[in-house]
Amino acid sequence: MKRILAIVLALVMVFALVACGQQAAPAGGSNQSTSQQGSAGSPKQDIAEAAPAEKPAETELKHVKMGLAMQSLQAAAFHAWADYLAYRLDYEAEQRGYEVELVTLNADNDVTKQATDIRDLIAQGCEVIFCPCLDSQAILSSVKEVHDAGLIYVSYCREVSHDAQGDEVPDLTVNFASEEQAYAGMVDLFNIMKEDGVEPVKLIDCYGDKTDENAHNREHGLRRAMEEFGYADLPVVEVECGHWEPDVCGQNLAPVLAANPDANCMYSSSDFLNSGIQKAMEDAGMWHKHGEEGHVYFSASDMYPLGIQHLREGYMDTAVDQGCYNFAVHAAAGAFDLLEGKEVEPVQLVLGTQATYKDIEEILATIPLWGNDYADY
Amino acid sequence: MSEKLKRFASNNKQLLIMIGVIAVVFIILSLTVPSFATIRNLTNLLQMIAPIAVMACGATYVLVIGGMDISNPSVMAASAVFGVYCMTTLGVNLVLGTIIIILTGAFLGLINGFAIAKLKMVPMVVTLSMMTIGTGLATILSGTRGLPRLPDSFSEFFNKTAVIIILLAVMLIMDFILTRTKFGRKLYYIGNNARTTKVSGIDSESIIMLTYVISGVCAGIAGVINTASIGTARANMGPQSQILDIISAAVIGGVSTSGGSGRVRDAVLGAFLVCGLTNVMNLLNVSDYYTTLIKGGIIIGAMGIASFRQQQAAKKGV
Hints:
The complex is a heterodimer of chains A (about 375) and B (about 325). Chain A has 13 helices and twelve strands. With about 375 residues, chain A is of the alpha/beta class. Chain A folds into two domains: about 55-175 and about 325-350, Response regulator (Rossmann fold); about 180-320 and about 355-375, Rossmann fold (3-Layer(aba) Sandwich). In chain A, β8 (about 265-270), α9 (about 275-285) and β9 (about 295-300) form a beta-alpha-beta unit. The radius of gyration of chain A is 23 Å and the shape is elongated. The termini of chain A are far apart. Chain B has a single domain, classed as ABC transporter involved in vitamin B12 uptake, BtuC. Chain B has helices at about 1-10, 15-30, 40-65, 70-90, 95-120, 125-140, 150-155, 160-180, 180-190, 195-200, 205-230, 240-250, 265-285, 290-315.
């Protein structure tokens, strides 16, 4: 009886899995109801574009399987990367006479699982593998494995290590113009400080992740802006934030604020960290809106929903959007070009929209920001 | 002959059930999922299972004595990071580096064992602390930008074939020790009744300590396998949630959490079921939103059946 029960359980398991596999939502389906409207890069605009007169008949469609090895789905931006990519792949497929099947796996922040996931995608016969790598060095073995299998590797929203050589170099990298993101945001911040007649005394730098090339690039952008404004000698107090962990960031920021009450400006590699930053600054009595006494001038990259909110409220002064939708636009087009044997620009960097506390309302009314698509408000 | 078969079936119920379930699942998946029964996928699957299965072997020893070791994933990551640190930063050669990874696991296991056996500390608290220490150690040694990569020869040596051989060797040796040696029998005695064991003159403290060392060695071996998989080592290569896979592999394989029963061989088959689930869900393109839910549900269901069977067996006095 017990043995029969065990076998029945196994059968139920397999059928449940098969059923769930078939129930998987069609790629990008949820994005059809996106709030983005009208402007460049809007999915709604693409729907209009995707109605050409000579659409290939369904029987002529070439089937292509692609894989997305996500590093995690814990942040809103990661969902945006995955959702927008699925949507744009469908769009490109329709334009070019393909039928695309996208398999998405999630490594859940486990670097060895990401390597295993990529092997699974290869085994499944995916012809193109997109991957926002968890670790820019550790991923190089996987890039080589993809190339050894004769497949295409697209480094998506992340860069692999600059040590990559030969088969370790991705066929296409679509990433944030992360250095420019930080640079542009800090230039805006220093200009606002100048307008207000405030001289930077000390800068707090919340360093998102020391194993992520984007965090390093943003650090370069920050330094470039400081040099350009003649603040090369400005004291900088660095706060380590684990692997983009808001709670770690907040915990590490608290003693830094206590030790540096004179700091009057701050940069954060990502406003994803803002929940931790806000808590630490509130506890330190340093969380004030622009124009209020004791305001710490604050710039961050990405424009997560909370970042947008902080800009609107004036706690944050400047920010530069991640441009998630444009990553998907470039990655999907590049992947199909590579599949069709066309040459592509191997590294494509995307700079998002710049915003300040002054113009955020106007931007929200005119430009579709990813953070708005994934906001609760 | 039929008498012998009957005896074999009666002595190896758990094994036969596990093989039956795996065979049924394998056949169904081979018929329904086109890319499942391919050499590439099956070797991928074995490579993925290997580290969990090896750690489940160590966990089986610990569970058999009635203990608990939840530090395995962190010990694995810490050992791997320390070994890779020695190889890449201190210039230690690859062979010695591999030995260092395993010895580091053994050393961290020894600390666990000493605290539990000699200082009489609670296993859960000790290994929970070791989990934190292991993660901290790995993070410190990884440095801010992560350790460099090892030469390709390391991953080439510990390739898929080597990993499968390591898994089989660990399973056979550890199962043999547990079931065919005096040491193994002592582990079962301790798991059944630690006090009686002490009275009967068995040095249970040393045996408990050695058991945790073995568990640490297994974590070290898993560290070597994972290091070969990514060509370097990272603090986040052993997520703490992995302990669920390890312990559930052993329990689904019939290892009792209250000690005194279970076999390494069956725990490895349990690892096949637990880790196979991830691979199968990947192949079936099950949305990630459902994956963890389904996996957790199946593990709870399977562990529930295992627990029910153990209770029934206890009632019958088997």
